[in-house]
Design brief:
The complex is a heterodimer of chains A (about 425) and B (about 280). Chain A is mainly alpha-helical and about 425 residues long. Helices cover about 65% and strands about 5% of the residues of chain A. In chain A, strands 2-1-3 form a three-stranded antiparallel beta sheet, sandwiched between helices. Chain B has about 280 residues and is α/β, with parallel strands linked by helices. Chain B has one domain: P-loop containing nucleotide triphosphate hydrolases (Rossmann fold, 3-Layer(aba) Sandwich). Chain B has eleven helices and ten strands. Chain B has a six-stranded mixed beta sheet, with helices on both faces. A four-stranded antiparallel beta sheet of chain B has the order 2-1-4-5, with helices on one face. In chain B, β9 and β10 form a beta hairpin. In chain B, α4 runs parallel beside α7 and α7 runs parallel beside α8. The chains are: A mainly alpha (about 425), B alpha/beta (about 280).
Chain lengths: ~425, ~280
């Protein structure tokens, strides 16, 4: 892509009368060549990055849908005696089937949960499916394999699971997002984990934003250059690079063990029997707040430093105190930068797994968190749990959970970009 | 004939004496002022008496400490962590560097206009209202409106901005921005206005407008201006202080007097070289 004219020294007649004419070599061609080589290097680097990213997204997306061999205890096609398929039947038509096929005790339990009149058609259908048909996923295939090797997959299923059904299953669905955790990959959802993550993030924002911004203001506007402040500054910079699992250990020692009366809520009269000691949302939130605090401080400092000094001078020159200068000029002008930095730090906390494992995230909870003193799980923990399971179908729902996590992170980052563009000022 | 000559001389004498010794009111006075940046002595032993309601220009080559002297008049140098000041700056007979003097109070009474126009990224109205407000303005909203109109009129900016008071101060041209900065300074009614090369970032027409404004303002305010432009010093100021460098690069006050005398009949050889353009 060279859009310059072929250079030639012949363009200009060399002035041989001047003694310095032979001081310069004709190296223009060479210099342009070197430039072209470097340009190619930069392009290749960019392409490698894009390929890596595309592979990651394709790999995850590939797992979120595809054929699944499902075996039923009782085939849904034979459950119905009227010839109508189950999907078409209304709730009152489905109920007798349910009553006929499950034990009396089980039926009573189901009725106690919610009576027939209150249930929607889909709920009834799901009940019949899970209580009567009892599907189990035997094997799943990713999207690409499903599209390319349909014949083989069909033959394999027919041979291995003669009673099984081969259906095309999309794993990321509305019910996946709205259902709690379950042992059965067909029923399992991510609602508990999303709520846990949101609770934790809320605590992280409430704790780390004010403390981080206040510390940044102190370090930039008030602290003088002396040995103690230099040590503090160096330590903050180093803390930002400490591995997250070490923060997990700190959280375990301090919040879970030492501050247990507070983090378990016992001190405030919360006695949740399900809470395992101090392993609560509050502990997790405090741990992650500590983790991102250095990053929030450093980002805040950078944003404050970017406010031009001329503004401070103008303010002081009019008889403003330091506090008036900071509050009216430095902070409003640094705010977009501070917000962007904080949101990026928070999205890092959102994806953290290791410290939460150490702090004691619950591996299996089916109920949504009710307060900050509840047991918790989070989306990355859930993904980690599911990928560790041997069954095929859990890999698929792990992929679906990753998509959910990525979308949530994307929303957070989009908010950061929006805030930056909305409030950034020029001076 | 003799009588006539005698009369002439008397008249001349009287005029010169009038110019030389007017009713001097000291606006601010530097006594044995030294300013250090770290170990570096930037300004050495400056004694300077600034006269009230006059324009005084500080001129001199780059790095001669004239801006430092200017900034020491309202303790802006305090904002530079390494800066240290010795000597006295007397304002209303009180040393502003004495312990117990609040620099914030000093800066309220001695305002400052900077080299580059630096309005706040707020509306034109708020640019002026903010300073008035933070200094404890007690009036009502309409008092504030009046004050802002009056201030903008004094800064010769009212006619240009009266229809867009709530537009950003940054939407104005460079010259207008600088007049806005002057306006927000005079809005808090200082005694002295310090101007650090206020026109160096402006075009000639804006410069002339600012100079005109300075002349108007000098009826009410004492103005001290640092400038690199000797024509400007000659045009606007009544007194001029010429600073120069010593061998160890410390700034010293070389010559101080009436502008007309300093420019037409400099006492010092270095001053003469500088103002005639032979050095600097």
């Amino acid at each position: 892509m060279s859009d310059y004219e072929k250079p030639s020294m012949d363009l200009f007649q060399p002035n041989y009368d001047r003694p310095e004419a032979d001081l310069f070599e004709d190296t223009l061609d060479k210099r342009h060549r070197v430039g072209r080589v470097w340009k190619v290097v930069f392009q290749i680097s960019t392409v490698i990055g894009i390929i890596a990213l595309a592979t990651l997204i394709l790999k995850i997306f590939n797992d979120t849908m595809g054929y699944a061999a499902i075996q039923y205890k009782k085939n849904p096609a034979t459950i119905s005696t009227t010839g109508k398929s189950l999907e078409e039947m209304s709730c009152s038509e489905l109920w007798p089937i349910l009553a006929e096929n499950v034990s009396k005790n089980r039926l009573r339990t189901i009725e106690r949960e919610k009576i027939l009149e209150e249930r929607t058609k889909t709920e009834c259908y799901n009940l019949v499916m899970f209580e009567v048909a009892e599907p189990t996923v035997k094997k799943t295939w990713p999207l690409l394999a499903s599209l390319i090797n349909y014949q083989e997959i069909q033959a394999y299923t027919a041979e291995k699971y003669p009673e099984g059904d081969l259906t095309f299953k999309v794993w990321i669905t509305k019910s996946f997002i709205l259902s709690p955790q379950s042992d059965d990959p067909l029923k399992a959802g991510i609602k508990t984990a999303i709520l846990g993550s949101l609770f934790i993030i809320l605590i992280v924002i409430i704790i780390s934003f004010p403390i981080g911004v206040a510390a940044a203001i102190y370090l930039e506007e008030y602290a003088t250059q002396n040995r103690i402040n230099n040590i503090i500054q160096t330590n903050i910079n180093n803390l930002a690079g400490v591995p997250s699992i070490i923060y997990g250990m700190l959280g375990l020692a301090v919040f879970v063990r030492y501050l247990e009366p507070i983090t378990s809520g016992a001190l405030f009269g919360f006695s949740d029997p399900t809470t395992a000691n101090g392993r609560t949302i509050l502990s997790a939130g405090l741990t992650l707040s500590l983790l991102i605090l250095p990053v929030v401080i450093i980002n805040g400092q950078e944003a404050i430093r970017a406010v031009p000094n001329s503004l401070r001078q103008a303010s002081y020159g009019m008889g403003a105190t330091k506090w008036q200068t900071v509050w009216s000029h430095v902070l409003p002008n640094a705010l977009p930068g501070i917000l962007t930095g904080t949101i990026l730090a928070v999205s890092r906390a959102f994806g953290e797994t290791a410290p939460l494992v150490v702090v004691g995230a619950a591996t299996f909870i089916t109920f949504s968190p009710e307060s900050i003193f509840s047991k918790f799980t989070s989306v990355p923990i859930q993904i980690y749990q599911w990928t560790a399971r041997p069954q095929d179908a859990f890999q698929n729902i792990a992929a679906a959970a990753i998509i959910v996590l990525l979308v949530l992170l994307l929303v957070l980052n989009a908010t950061a970009v929006f805030l930056r563009n909305r409030y950034s000022r020029r001076w | 004939m003799n009588l006539g000559i005698h009369l002439d001389t008397t008249v001349n004498q009287t005029i010169i004496e009038e110019i030389k010794e007017p009713d001097i009111i000291h606006a601010i006075e530097a006594k044995d002022l030294n300013v250090f940046y770290g170990d570096f002595l930037a300004v050495r032993e400056v004694d300077l008496v600034i006269q009230a309601q006059k324009i005084t220009a500080l001129i001199g080559p780059s790095g001669c400490g004239k801006s430092t002297v200017l900034r020491s008049f309202n303790r802006m140098n305090d904002l530079i962590p390494t800066a240290r000041t010795t000597g006295e700056v007397l304002f209303h007979g009180k040393n502003i560097y004495k312990e117990g003097v609040d620099p914030v109070e000093v800066r309220k009474r001695i305002g400052m206009v900077f080299q580059k126009p630096n309005p706040f990224p707020k509306s034109i109205y708020e640019n002026i209202a903010w300073g008035v407000h933070i200094n404890g303005f007690k009036g009502s909203k309409s008092d504030m409106d009046n004050l802002i109109e009056q201030t903008l009129r004094s800064a010769a900016l009212w006619d240009e901005v009266k229809d867009k008071l709530h537009d950003s101060g940054l939407s104005l041209s460079g010259g207008q921005q600088q007049r806005l900065c002057i306006a927000r300074t005079i809005a808090i009614r200082p005694d002295i206005i310090l101007m650090d090369e206020p026109c160096s970032a402006l075009d000639p027409i804006s410069t002339l407008k600012i100079e005109e404004l300075m002349r108007d303002l000098s009826e009410e305010y004492t103005i001290i201006i640092v400038t690199h432009n000797m024509q400007q010093a000659a045009r606007v100021s009544e007194f001029t202080a010429f600073f120069s460098l010593t061998e160890n690069r410390a700034g010293v006050l070389m010559e101080y007097g009436l502008t007309i005398q300093l420019f037409t009949n400099p006492k010092n050889k270095i001053t003469e070289d500088y103002i005639t353009g032979r050095f600097g």
